[in-house]
Automatic annotation (TrEMBL):
One Gene Ontology term from the biological process aspect of the record: regulatory ncRNA-mediated heterochromatin formation
Protein name as it appears in the record: Arb2 domain-containing protein
Annotated segments matching region Disordered: 310-331
GO molecular function: siRNA binding
Amino acid sequence: MPIFTTRNLDTKSRIVVIFGEPTQELGLVAGRVANGAGGINEGSMVSVVRALASQRSSSDDTSPPGVVLANMGQTYFWPQGKRAITVLASSFLPLPSLLHKGVRHVPALNDIPGNEDPVKHVKYMFDEVLRSMANDKALLDVVAIGDSCEIVERFLDGQEAWDTWGKRLNSLTLLGPVCEAEGLTNGPFKDFMAKRARGYLVCPEPLGTPLAPPEGNSELSIPPLGFPCVSSSEPMYAETILIRARSHIASHIQDVAMDLGYENPAITPIDCPPPAMTEQHWDDLPEEHKPEVTKVEPVEFKAQVKQAKRWRKFQETGQAPETDSESESEV
C-alpha cells in the first residue's frame, strides 16, 4: 500500500500526520475541486504540503516539519492491476463478460496485510510506519478528515496506544468530527483533547467563528465532542473543509507547535441562528440536494394508499388481508 512522506523523516523534530477520508484516493482531498475550477493543486494535498513547508518545527527548530499522508481509502489490492485501489473503485473493475455480476472479494488476494480496512490502517501507520521511520523524540500533529476522525480518536483512546503515543502527541485537529466524548474512556486522552485538540465543523459562518466549547452547544445542536469547535466556513461538505480553512488550520497547528504549554483558550459561542431561506438560496442549492416532487395519477395514488394500509394492518396484527378485493375500510 502506498503512502506519502517527506524526505529525511527521521531527522524531523515535528511531523504532521494527515488521515484523509476513507473514500478518497491517496493525496486527494476533494474530487469536486480537483476536477473542477480549483484544479489538482487546490483539490489535493499539494497545497496542504506546500503550506506546511513554510512553517518551522518549533521555537528552537527553524526547519519545516515532516509530513506523512496516510492512505485511508486504498485498502483493496487489485491483482490484475498490481496496485491498491479504493473499495468503491473495486466495484468498477472490468469484468470477463456481461454475464458476470461483479468481482468477488477474496481476502487472500484482495486484502493488504495489516491494512485490511481504515481502522487497521490507522494502527499500522502508528505502530509500523511512524515507529520505524520517525525518530523517537519527534512530536506529532495529527489531522483527520470526516470518518477518519472517529477512527483516529478511538485508536488514541486505547490505553496501549495512549501510553505509547500520548507523550508525543502535540496537537489533534479534526475536520468534520461527530464522535461524542462520552463514548471515549481514556481520561488522560480526553483531557488532552479539551486542552490541545480542535474541531472544524461544516458551517456557513465566517472562518474561525467559535461554535462550541468541549461541552457542546445545544443551541446549535452540537453534542459534547470533548474539544472546542469553530466554523470552517464550508457550508456543505466535510471533504472540502481542509481546502476552505487550510490557512486557518495550518496557522493553528503552528501556534500549538510554538508553545509546548499551549492550552485551548476558553471560547464563548456566538449566537448564529440559521438564516431564512430565500429564492436565491433555493436557486443556489445543487439539484441533488433539493427534495424530489412528483405527480401521481389518482388511480395509482389510491392503490399506493391501499397497499400502505395493508402493510400497517400486517404490522399491527401479524396477519395480512386474505384478498386484494377487500375494501379500504377493512384494511
